[in-house]
Structure formats: C-alpha cells, structure tokens
Design goal:
Helix content: 25-40%
Number of strands: 6
Strand content: 15-25%
Number of helices: 6
Radius of gyration: 17 Å
Distance between the termini: 40 Å
Shape: globular
Structural class: alpha/beta
Strand order of the largest sheet: 2-3-1-4-5-6
C-alpha cells in the first residue's frame, strides 16, 4: 500500500440501562431517543425490552448503544433476575415523573439497586444520569431545580436533565452527556481531558 496516514475508526458498544418506576416514561424516552417518535398511548413494559442506537460521535468514533428498557414494577422472578439484566452495563438512565414526586424517592431506590448489583471493572459505580421526565407538564419548577443539584450529589448521580419525550426536550442532550462520560471511562481519560478532546464545556 502506498504511503500516507490511515484513519482508524473506533467502534464502542455500550449497554445502557433505563430504569425507574412504572409509568414514568422510560419507553417513551427510548422511543424518542432512538426512533425520534412519540406515542400518546401508554403500554406498560413487561419484563425487559431492547433498542439499538448508532451514533457517529466524531470522525473517528462510532458509538453503538444497547438500551435495556426494564419494567418498572418487576415481579419476584424479574427482581431476582435483575442482577443478570444489569450485568456488564456501562451506563444508566434513572427516570422519574415530575408530576408524581413519589417516583423521585423510588429513583433513589433504583439507584441503590443499580449500585449494589453492577460495578465497572475499576470497582466504581456505573455512571448514572437522573431524568426528570414529563417536564412539559410542570414547566418552570424552580424548586425542583434547586432540589436536584443536592439530590444528585447525595445519591451519586453524574447529573440530571429535565426531559420531555413528548416535546423532545433534552432527550439528545441527556444521551450525549451520558455517552461522553462512558467514553471517558472507556478511554481512561479524566473529565478535563475529555473536555479538551471534544471542545465541550
């Protein structure tokens, strides 16, 4: 082969869990994120469902996300299987419904369950992003914003986003934030190095 540089494309496959109580909008979030669609009718997930999304992160990196949509009210058998479902996860979205604040307390329990059942190779917790979903129904909730910063620090979330699958608000942004952190971990980079590499702030 003649001289000249060869551009090598890296492919990353990340398993991402989407967890939270029933009815908080996990499936709607995934459908919007993967297929750019929103369905008004509600159908509860039974067991576990899967979706795949491929993203050209940059000119040298293709990211393939395997999104695991896990039922919000698992039966005894499913609960016992959750360790198997969580296995090898590299990231997670924990979703709650801003119109039902009791689902925020449940999000804490889901995060605890996640941390107790799966860890990264380094022994660190799996990076998790908290989604305050259905924010189109609770616009301008300043109390929520001030609460969430401390809540994320206390519970060990990377950060949080107000999202609306219906209005397509912050869906891609939340996905990009989690991906950036998974890539940073995968490449063994610090947050500062990742920022320098991507040009993000």
């Amino acid at each position: 082969m003649a001289g000249g540089s060869v551009s090598v494309c890296t492919e990353c496959l990340f398993k991402v869990l989407v967890i939270g109580e029933r009815g908080v909008g996990k499936t709607s979030f995934i459908t919007r994120y993967v297929n750019m669609r929103f369905k008004e009718e509600y159908k509860a997930s039974i067991g576990v469902d899967f979706a795949l999304k491929t993203i050209e992160w940059d000119n040298k990196t293709v990211v393939r996300l395997q999104l695991w949509d896990i039922a919000g009210k698992p039966n005894i058998g499913l609960r016992n299987m959750s360790r198997v479902y969580y296995k090898e996860a590299m990231g997670a979205f924990v979703v709650f419904d801003t119109t039902k604040m009791e689902t925020l307390e449940a999000a804490s329990q889901w995060k605890h369950d996640l941390d107790s059942k799966v860890r990264l190779v380094s022994g660190s917790p799996v990076p998790a992003v908290l989604l305050a979903n259905k924010c189109d129904q609770t616009e301008g909730n300043k109390e929520l914003s001030s609460l969430m910063v401390n809540y994320c620090k206390e519970k060990g979330f990377l950060g949080w986003f107000e999202t609306s699958a219906k209005d397509n608000l912050n869906v891609d942004e939340a996905g990009a934030f989690l991906m950036e952190n998974m890539l940073r971990i995968d490449r063994g980079l610090s947050r500062a190095e990742t920022t320098e590499m991507t040009g993000s702030t």
